[in-house]
Amino acid sequence: MTRGPLRALLPELALFFVLLAAPILLPPLGFSHDLLSRALNWALFGLGFDILFGLAGLLSFGQAAFYGAGGFVAAYLLVSGTIQSVWLAFLIGTLAAGLFGIAVGWLAVRRIGIYFAMITLAFGQMAYFIQNSSLSDYTGGENGIAGVPVPVIGFGDGAFRITAGLPMYALLAATFFFGFVLARRIVRSPVGLILKAIKENTPRVAMLGHDVPAYKLAAFTIAALYAGLAGAMLGSFQSYMPPDAFALETSGQLVVQTIVGGVGTLVGPLVGAALWLWLRDNLQLVPGLGPLWKLILGIAFIGLVMGLRRGICGEILHRWERRRDAALLRAAEARTEVIEAATGAVTPEVPAEVALPMPRPAIDGRASHAEIALEAQDLARHYGGLKAVDGVSFRVRRGSIHAVIGPNGAGKSTLFKMLSDEVSPSAGSVLLFGERLTGAGGARAAQLGVAKSNQLNQLFLNLTVRENLRVAALARARGRFRLDLLAPSVGRAEVEDQVETMLAILDLGPRAETRASILAYGEKRRLEIGMALATSPNVLLLDEPLAGMSPSERVATCALIRRIGRSCTILIVEHDLDAVFDLAEQVTVLSDGHLLADGPAEDVRRDPAVRKAYLGTGPEEDGTGESTRIRGAMNEPA
Ligand SMILES: Nc1ncnc2c1ncn2[C@@H]1O[C@H](COP(=O)(O)OP(=O)(O)OP(=O)(O)O)[C@@H](O)[C@H]1O
């Protein structure tokens, strides 16, 4: 085994030895075997929550519903004698919680932020109520279910009962260990990378072609499965399934423990739970402090969160990574400063040819002969009384570079959002190669081959340049949704080839491992375009690609667009009219949401209505030279 894979396994090895040593070394410090077992049960529950919250950024206050569901299903099946095998009951309890998770998640993931949290809270409360009322014949209501048997290994005389104490610790430690290994595989899979990107910038993930609700639902279900398994083991471990497994306090404690331990670290829930339970158990033993333990825990929690914003493990990991990567980070920041200081002097290299390894989406049947790549039919978008776009129709020829221009507020960005089906039109429709695109949704439009780069950068700022491009390329390679939880995110050769080619095309090779947030502005603009291009689109929409670039970067980017245009239909919105008339064969002009002109670039340049819209009757200099530049662009070339 080489050094790389061994190093990648270090967290697993470290955890293995910690779990092995804990029952020997920690009891003298007040961590009994029972406390350690309870901490492991919470930690198993927390692993799923950490995938949901730490990885995907979805804060749920209703995880107790799945913990309780897994626990009560398993406990009922065993105590009622429906099944004898405790192992089978664990499995059924886990699956029941997973199914419940799919049902709740299906509704919850369609909402974001506080609305998502409130839906999960409401479901948690509903589950608690149902357990205590309608289902009390099965769940024992407020009494819970007593007499839950423990699991047994082997048969007959050789059977070994896993009783409380060290045997139960061993079982929970082994389960947590395998849960941890699995969670780490999930984090490092394509699904894990996409969930990370969703946490960073959800709309952009959808625009690249990923089915965001499906990935969120996957994370929600995984969290419910972990919760169900932990709940199912709880009854067996305590010989009793308590009704408070369903309580809001259980969900709250999970959130607090995970935050204290460190969100997004996977070991945070274990450290948080161990600390929380240790404080709780030991504070209650201190004379005079017993009744105040909740108050003291609350103060300790506030102190920890204020002092260690990332939680205990999160802070340790952050500081260690910062120290490990300090030299690289300084070098990356220094390079950014050099690029920003030398505005105009640093010119990105433009490749001789732009050929992507990953194929474009196939155009089938009738559509493959279509001459028109994209068509707007009477498109309108109204915001209340404001008609941002009103009855606009035009066609974009296949293989052409077509520009949309117009003064500020003319409706260009809104038009683009309708062309990529990011925004639904109030009226009219968009055809892609003759087939209706409108109504498909942004992710499906991207899968059909429409990609868009935005006026304002929409990058995944905490991911590296390479990871940003990988998220885009994965959408092309894997389709809208795939549950390849155990595959490594770097495992697909065609994706890695696409990413390498993109790094070369964008001249961002030396910045591949740099976080997007550290890049210079011009580099961020190139990456924004590159992410759209990495999906191998049939039609590329570029919304103000030159905005904020230095003159030399503009020249290089125009050359890049021209190269891309040799193999792909391009529609570009741009205020730099010199660049527009230099690049585009066809130009569509918008003014106040209406179509003002549409035709070959030279005809549009000479159109009196267009000249008037841009220059007015008597343009004044505004001190920026903008009027002169526009006048220059509007005049016929020498
Ligand atoms: N979500 C929205 N809600 C309300 N009004 C909006 C919304 N989006 C755009 N508008 C309005 O629609 C009009 C057209 O905006 P849009 O951004 O499409 O113009 P634009 O031509 O792209 O402008 P610019 O060149 O300045 O980017 C503007 O008056 C804008 O304020």
From TrEMBL:
Its main location: membrane. InterPro entries: AAA+_ATPase, ABC_AA/LPS_Transport, ABC_transp_permease, ABC_transporter-like_ATP-bd, ABC_transporter-like_CS, BCA_ABC_TP_C, LivM-like, P-loop_NTPase. GO terms for cellular component: plasma membrane. Residues 374-617 form the ABC transporter domain. Belongs to the ABC transporter superfamily. It comes from Methylobacterium bullatum. It is a multi-pass membrane protein. Residues 614-638 are annotated as: Disordered. It is found in: Cell membrane. Keywords: ATP-binding, Cell membrane, Membrane, Nucleotide-binding, Transmembrane, Transmembrane helix, Transport. The chain crosses the membrane at residues 42-59, 87-107, 112-130, 166-187, 214-234, 254-279, 291-308. PROSITE patterns: ABC_TRANSPORTER_1, ABC_TRANSPORTER_2. GO terms for molecular function: ATP binding; ATP hydrolysis activity; branched-chain amino acid transmembrane transporter activity. This is Vitamin B12 import ATP-binding protein BtuD. The keyword Transmembrane applies. The lineage of its organism: Bacteria, Pseudomonadati, Pseudomonadota, Alphaproteobacteria, Hyphomicrobiales.
